[in-house]
Automatic annotation (TrEMBL):
The chain crosses the membrane at residues 16-38, 90-113, 125-146, 177-198, 219-244, 275-296. Residues 90-296 form the ABC transmembrane type-1 domain. Keywords: Cell membrane, Membrane, Transmembrane, Transmembrane helix, Transport. It is found in: Cell membrane. PROSITE patterns: ABC_TM1. GO terms for biological process: transmembrane transport. Belongs to the binding-protein-dependent transport system permease family. CysTW subfamily. This is Putrescine/spermidine ABC transporter permease. InterPro entries: MetI-like, MetI-like_sf.
Length: 308
């Protein structure tokens, strides 16, 4: 039975409505704030409230806009290149986030795998235990690690009592403490998508491999792990992206030598009150995160189209 013109129009309108909702959400909560921050990054510092002089004055009309555009300067972005503090902060943030993501994957994969292979009656309880830390404030959980990692903290007291060490370990105010804080805080973000991917795995594939004489470790690397890669990628993105711009953990657990762009951005914005430079820092950080993700998604889309 062929569709009428009205039914085709209704189908197109329905598809357009479904597609337009996420695009409208993206426009409202991503693109609009991005352009506002980008506009501030092109401004000049001023002793005023807010502490910057806008380059584009919309009240001056089209002539004022053309004049401002002809005199447009990217001096704040040039400053980010000239001052090594900023590029070292970017590099340090990406390094710390990448190492933390890798450690989180090493810790989270066995947890997700164990949850996926546990009896079905246990899985809701195990999921609740993974989500349980979210019932407590993020700030309180980070502060708790100060009490655990400091020289007279619980960890050092335990190690001294057991006899593993003779002197307290200096963990707090180091990059090691930052790694511990990030891995602990973002572990559920990796476990949950990875568990969802592993839980859907067809166990008959593993049974067939076992019947064909495949050892368990080889079956894991040839069947289980490749099929769980979408969950691995999703979980790593959910950990890496917020970890790059993390501020609370390096500020509370890291030392004065801990360089992360979130901490540098906060100092520029609140201590130096240099809104244009801090906005430029935020724009560059966003581009560093968004561009690789967009390129990766395009590559995945092309791969899926070729496979189809």
């Amino acid at each position: 039975m062929e569709e009428t013109g009205l039914e085709k129009l209704e189908g197109k309108l329905g598809k357009w409505l479904v597609i337009s909702i996420p695009y409208a959400w993206l426009m409202l909560f991503f693109l609009v704030p991005f352009f506002i921050v980008f506009k501030i990054s092109l401004s000049h510092v001023a002793v005023s409230i807010p502490p910057y002089a806008p380059v584009f004055d919309w009240s001056a009309g089209w002539d004022g806009f053309k004049e401002a555009f002809s005199e447009l300067s990217f001096e704040n972005y040039v400053w980010l290149i000239e001052d090594d503090l900023y590029w070292r902060s970017y590099l340090s943030s990406v390094t710390i986030a990448a190492v933390s993501t890798f450690i989180t994957l090493l810790v989270g994969y066995p947890i997700a795998y164990g949850m996926a292979r546990s009896p079905k009656s246990w899985r809701p309880t195990l999921l609740m235990l993974v989500i349980l830390p979210f019932w407590t404030s993020f700030l309180i959980r980070v502060y708790a690690w100060i009490g655990i990692l400091k020289n007279e903290g619980l960890l050092n007291q335990l190690l001294l009592w057991v006899g593993v060490i003779d002197q307290p370990l200096s963990i707090l105010n180091t990059n090691t403490a930052v790694y511990i804080g990030i891995v602990y805080s973002y572990l559920p973000f990796l476990v949950l998508p990875l568990y969802a991917s592993l839980e859907k795995l067809d166990e008959s594939l593993l049974e067939a491999a076992q019947d064909l004489g495949c050892p368990p470790w080889k079956a894991f690397w040839t069947i289980t792990f490749p099929l769980s890669i979408p969950g691995v990628i999703a979980g790593c993105f959910l950990v890496f992206i917020p970890a790059v711009g993390e501020f609370v953990i390096p500020d509370l657990l890291g030392g004065s030598q801990t360089l992360m762009i979130g901490k540098t951005l906060w100092l520029e914005f609140f201590n130096n009150r240099d809104w244009p430079v801090s906005s430029a820092v935020a724009v560059v950080l966003l581009l560093i995160l968004v561009i690789p993700i967009v390129l990766f998604q395009r590559q995945q889309q092309k791969a899926s189209e070729k496979a189809a």
